[in-house]
Amino acid sequence: MVSKIKTCVFISGNGSNLKSIIKSSRDCNFPAKIDLVISNNINSNGLLIGKKNGIPSRYIKYVNQFDFERKAINELRKKGIKFLILAGFMKVLSKKFIYNFRYKIVNIHPSLLPKFKGLNTHKRVLKDKEKYSGCTVHFVSDSLDSGQIISQKKILINKNETEDSLKNKVLKLEHRLYSQSIISIFR
């Protein structure tokens, strides 16, 4: 059994990666214990997933970056959080915030970085007629989607692929890759 690091997951949306990570965290050998979920979206399904799993789940209104981060840091300190997982968190964190958690924040992005950083990834992948897509787990740095890559997984794009079908295929990869990547960080 490993000693588990106190972890918070930041979310904005549906919470499917959160659900997958919570499931993995129940394994005694998984290195992270999810002690807190924070969302900037009051309607995030991920808040409900956290609560259903007995995890304190907080909505922090995003008025501006400074205010959000100040409130988030307060919550993180109260819980003694040492590791952050961004799982569909759709806001950029400041350099100061990132510096406070240097190499202790990870993110998953739905492309094979360094290609297709930022938003509208699947649309851009299809527009550029890429043969492959996938997902990347990386450490968060102060440049968008540019931190050190931890791992990647790729899939072949079918000729009749749509944005929705590609999104769903990549999301299934994310659910497997994210937990595997978190394990690899602490080996």
What does this structure look like?
This protein has 187 residues and is an alpha/beta fold. It folds into 2 domains: 1-102, Formyl transferase, N-terminal domain (Rossmann fold), CATH 3.40.50.170; 108-187, Rossmann fold (3-Layer(aba) Sandwich), CATH 3.40.50. It contains 6 helices and 7 strands, in the order βαβαβαβαβαββα. Helix 1 packs parallel to helix 6.
Euclidean distance between termini CA atoms: 13 Å
Q: Please trace the helix and strand order, writing H or E for each element.
A: EHEHEHEHEHEEH
Broad structural category: alpha/beta
The count of domains is 2
**Low-confidence spans:** none
In CATH terms, the superfamily of the largest domain is Formyl transferase, N-terminal domain
Provide the residue-averaged pLDDT. Answer: 96
- CATH architecture classification name of the largest domain: 3-Layer(aba) Sandwich
Radius of gyration: 16 Å
List keywords for this structure.
37% helix, Rossmann fold, 7-stranded mixed beta sheet, alpha/beta, 6 helices
Give a summary of the structure in a few sentences:
The chain has six helices and seven strands; from the N terminus they run E-H-E-H-E-H-E-H-E-H-E-E-H. By secondary structure, the chain is an alpha/beta fold. The mean pLDDT is 96.
